[in-house]
Design goal:
about 500 residues, alpha+beta, 6-stranded mixed sheet, 14 helices, binds zinc ion
Length: about 500
């Protein structure tokens, strides 16, 4: 049984370190046998860092189903376009590729073949490719149990699905490939720099201890039964900036216009915009505001940090909740204000390590009878009046049943870690991760700056902490996995980071 695969991706190539990494992961106990495999042969020892950015439109046609909830909502138009943005980094023959989408989520079944195509095009390993989503709730419902159930009903009733007039998953994979190809063509020698701004006052932990002893998510604004938040917020707003070398030398470090793109990360749900139109929410506003400073060709790649239990709702304040414009402008303002404090990512040393661990499922296993019942609960939700958590549990059990069929030995969870230099690293995690887990990775990482991105390559449920599993409420109801899955991701990420250091 191959429960754990460790994949040293770049010329890290130090077999001793790989062996140590393998040993540490085996100690998790929850895992078991493992295989270490060296995917990429030794490359040139160094070389300058280069980067390329590109973006493509991925807005679905009007009339597509709108995602972000548990019912069927039909979109009524396009407020602003949805984008997929590609960032390609390269040094000494080593490559790292990130494709970020203005989507709610991207599923493993779609990203795995797409990553293979992209990796083959750039002659690299699939493990050096991340396809992720900003968790944009102003985006289409295009995969998963809800889509499948409503799509099947439409086909039964109409013989064609009026809400899916194009092959959207094909559009996505084609455009991802196009964006990466364009970013690769535009790739130029760069200087990277990083600043971690502190963003106070926007992110709120949305889980609360209540007077009746329970923990509730989103209990309602000014609910008198709130005692205190059940968890922290992460105020880090890292900004990783790439500036053309030639332009920088002529224009000076602080000169605008030479910056080609950047990655920023904030741990707060991209679920602000609301309504039934498609739109990129605050990451779109952030890009528009940063372009005012860096120029119209600048591409802002925004990634959601570990924001499973974090949103923008000021539950304990009479102050109105911020809207997507206020949030995008505030984030841009904090980034630009802190820009002079950025530090160069000097002596870049790009390397990537990845590991896939298998997490056990929650008990009991979902039977076929329950699976069929769960599908009916979702399909007939307008007539059966199912309560919210009944609907969420039905949705989870559809996933749970389908996952067990596909992955009977446990759900694969892939973690990728990217070293930029001795001080800075990135971590990419699947699913919606509770904030404390991301903060635990940062706190114990051997790197000064550790940037943690969620919703990478796969997502459909929340990954709570062990403590939150005991507390219950919405996020825990969504999760198909057993308690400990979050801590497993933390341990895996830290092991990869330690090995990269
Ligand atoms: Zn979410």
């Amino acid at each position: 049984m191959n429960l754990l695969m460790i994949r040293p991706l770049t010329m890290c190539g130090d077999l001793m370190r790989i062996a140590a990494l393998t040993g540490i992961l085996v100690m998790f106990g929850i895992l078991g046998a493992q295989a270490a495999e060296k995917r990429v042969a030794a490359e040139e020892p160094d070389g300058s860092l280069s980067a390329g950015f590109a973006e493509v439109d991925i807005t679905p046609p009007e009339g597509w189903r709108h995602g972000g909830g548990y019912g069927e909502v039909i979109s009524t138009g396009v407020h602003d376009s949805l984008r997929a943005k590609a960032m390609v980094l390269s040094q000494g023959g080593k490559t790292f590729i990130l494709v970020m989408n203005d989507l709610l989520s991207v599923p493993e079944g779609l990203t795995t073949p797409a990553r293979k195509r992209i990796a083959a095009n750039l002659n690299t390993s699939v493990d050096n490719v991340v396809i992720a989503a900003t968790h944009n709730h102003g985006s289409p419902e295009y995969w998963g149990p809800l889509r499948d159930i409503f799509h099947a009903r439409e086909l039964r009733l109409q013989e064609e699905d009026r809400h899916e007039r194009i092959d959207y998953t094909r559009l996505l994979t084609d455009r991802w490939e196009k964006a990466v190809g364009e970013a690769e063509r535009r790739r130029v020698e760069v200087d990277a720099s990083i600043v971690v701004a502190e963003q106070l006052g926007l992110a709120q932990n949305r889980r609360f201890h209540m007077r009746d002893g329970s923990v509730r998510f989103n209990p309602g604004k000014l609910n008198p039964n709130i005692i205190r938040p059940a968890g922290p917020v992460d105020t880090d707003l890292p900004f990783l900036l790439f500036q053309k070398v030639s332009s920088r030398r002529t224009a000076g470090v602080s000169g605008g216009g030479a910056v080609i793109g950047a990655l920023s990360i904030f741990a707060m749900h991209t679920a602000v915009f609301g309504g039934t139109e498609f739109g990129a929410d605050f990451p779109g506003v952030l890009q528009a505001n940063l372009q005012k400073h860096f120029g119209p060709d600048f591409i802002s790649v925004f990634a959601e940090g570990t924001a499973g239990d974090i949103n923008h709702i000021r539950a304990r304040s009479e102050k109105p909740n911020p809207d997507s414009i206020e949030i995008g402008e505030t984030l841009a303002g904090a980034i630009l204000e802190n820009l002079p404090q950025r530090r160069p990512v000097d002596e870049p040393d790009l390397a990537v390590l990845a590991a896939t661990v298998r997490a056990p499922y929650r008990q009991p296993a979902v039977t076929e009878d329950r699976y069929l019942e769960a599908k009916k609960i979702i399909e007939n939700q307008l007539s059966n009046g199912a309560a919210f958590l009944t609907l969420v549990a039905a949705w989870r059990d559809c996933h749970h049943y389908e996952y067990r069929l596909k992955f009977p030995d446990g759900k694969p969870l892939e973690v990728q870690a990217v070293r930029l230099n001795r001080d800075s690293a990135l971590v990419f995690l699947p699913h919606e991760i509770f904030v404390e887990l991301g903060m635990a990775i940062k706190a114990s990482s051997p790197f000064r700056n550790t940037l943690v991105v969620s919703l990478s390559n796969d997502v459909d449920f929340y990954i709570p902490t062990r403590r939150a599993f005991e507390e219950g409420s919405y996020e825990i109801t969504t999760c198909s996995l057993a308690p400990g899955c979050g801590e497993l991701l933390v341990e895996t990420a830290l092991t990869l980071l330690t090995s990269l250091k």
